[in-house]
């Protein structure tokens, strides 16, 4: 370090800090937020830490300095994290008559409170869904509306709220033979499920909406909030998410059917709750997607908090994230086939 110029010394110190934080973040999926909530907050910064370490690696490579070895080693150790952030391969898209198309979409109350100035957002969402015609549609922040007329679907919804009834819904082109809700205490969030029948197979579809972080990507108050308050608030939410995940997993382990889990986890693929819910399931984006796969409109870096997970009974034949700004979330859709 003595041979480095002053500017390089400053960059090297920043590099050490970013590399150390990224290495620390590798342990986060195994650390329960109830025990170390302040550490869990770091999971939100993992995409930024990955990008920073790549930039440091490129800088030292261009200046031909051996300091490049630090970020290179850290990125190699966490290669699965890097490829979970960005998929370099092309999207998989295999057409098959036995494919089941599954869409997940947080519709943000169909723009009820005019977060997006356009007047036709609700109709655009309905038109988009009608155009894509998913066999299964899982919605979060859904509200019933007579003008939201999705034809050809069976439906199960679970709603709460006084002034504005809203919640989760699952639409299915296949008959629903059973349905229910997993209530999360002291919150409007919950998980719902339906059992559908395709041919002679019964399939369980879950729609999971974990506690929200309360981060509005367009809200300038986020920039003004002190780091101490933000960490405290997010830590509290992550502890709630862990409790909600535990309730969901208790229900899930009693399911004897093949299953697909959709939802807005309000947390990243680097989090404890994602690891716990995913378990041995396959992440449709990881298996068949490409690019960043961002599902939430966050101005600082790409964030993937909406997921479709399927068990080993399915082959994943396709995945797509739709780049349409009709909500603060982007819809995702996968094609799966029963083995």
TrEMBL record:
<keyword id="KW-0472">Membrane</keyword>
<keyword id="KW-0378">Hydrolase</keyword>
<dbReference type="InterPro" id="IPR051547">
    <property type="entry name" value="TDP2-like"/>
</dbReference>
<dbReference type="GO" id="GO:0004519">
    <property type="term" value="F:endonuclease activity"/>
</dbReference>
<keyword id="KW-0234">DNA repair</keyword>
<keyword id="KW-0812">Transmembrane</keyword>
<feature type="transmembrane region" description="Helical">
    <location>
        <begin position="12"/>
        <end position="32"/>
    </location>
</feature>
<keyword id="KW-0540">Nuclease</keyword>
<keyword id="KW-0255">Endonuclease</keyword>
<feature type="transmembrane region" description="Helical">
    <location>
        <begin position="38"/>
        <end position="61"/>
    </location>
</feature>
<keyword id="KW-1133">Transmembrane helix</keyword>
<keyword id="KW-0227">DNA damage</keyword>
<dbReference type="Pfam" id="PF03372">
    <property type="entry name" value="Exo_endo_phos"/>
</dbReference>
<keyword id="KW-0479">Metal-binding</keyword>
<protein>
    <submittedName>
        <fullName>Endonuclease/exonuclease/phosphatase family protein</fullName>
    </submittedName>
</protein>
<dbReference type="InterPro" id="IPR036691">
    <property type="entry name" value="Endo/exonu/phosph_ase_sf"/>
</dbReference>
<feature type="transmembrane region" description="Helical">
    <location>
        <begin position="68"/>
        <end position="86"/>
    </location>
</feature>
<dbReference type="InterPro" id="IPR005135">
    <property type="entry name" value="Endo/exonuclease/phosphatase"/>
</dbReference>
<feature type="domain" description="Endonuclease/exonuclease/phosphatase">
    <location>
        <begin position="105"/>
        <end position="329"/>
    </location>
</feature>
<keyword id="KW-0460">Magnesium</keyword>
């Amino acid at each position: 370090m003595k041979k480095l110029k002053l500017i390089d010394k400053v960059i090297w110190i920043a590099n050490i800090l970013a590399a150390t934080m990224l290495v620390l973040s590798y342990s986060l999926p195994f650390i329960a937020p109830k025990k170390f909530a302040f550490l869990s907050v770091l999971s939100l910064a993992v995409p930024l830490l990955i990008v920073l370490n790549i930039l440091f690696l490129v800088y030292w490579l261009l200046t031909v300095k051996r300091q490049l070895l630090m970020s290179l080693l850290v990125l190699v150790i966490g290669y699965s994290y890097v490829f979970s952030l960005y998929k370099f391969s092309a999207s998989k898209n295999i057409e098959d008559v036995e494919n089941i198309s599954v869409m997940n979409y947080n519709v943000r109350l169909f723009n009820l409170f005019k977060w997006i100035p356009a007047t036709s957002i609700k109709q655009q969402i309905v038109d988009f869904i009608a155009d894509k015609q998913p066999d299964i549609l899982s919605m979060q922040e859904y509200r019933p509306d007579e003008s939201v007329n999705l034809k050809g679907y069976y439906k199960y919804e679970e709603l709460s709220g006084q002034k504005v009834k809203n919640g989760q819904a699952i639409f299915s082109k296949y008959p629903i033979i059973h349905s229910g809700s997993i209530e999360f205490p002291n919150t409007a969030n919950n998980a719902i499920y339906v059992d559908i029948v395709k041919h002679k197979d019964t399939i369980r579809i879950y729609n999971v909406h974990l506690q929200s972080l309360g981060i509005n990507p367009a809200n300038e108050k986020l920039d003004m909030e002190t780091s101490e308050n933000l960490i405290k608030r997010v830590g509290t939410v992550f502890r709630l998410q862990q409790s909600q995940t535990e309730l969901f997993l208790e229900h899930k382990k009693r399911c004897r059917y093949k299953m697909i889990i959709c939802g807005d986890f309000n947390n990243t693929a680097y989090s404890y709750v994602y690891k716990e819910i995913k378990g041995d399931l396959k992440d449709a984006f990881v298996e068949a997607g490409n690019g960043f796969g961002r599902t939430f409109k966050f101005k600082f870096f790409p964030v993937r908090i909406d997921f479709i997970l399927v068990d080993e009974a399915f082959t994943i034949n396709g995945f797509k994230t739709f780049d349409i700004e009709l909500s603060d979330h982007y819809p995702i859709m996968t094609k799966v086939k029963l083995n």
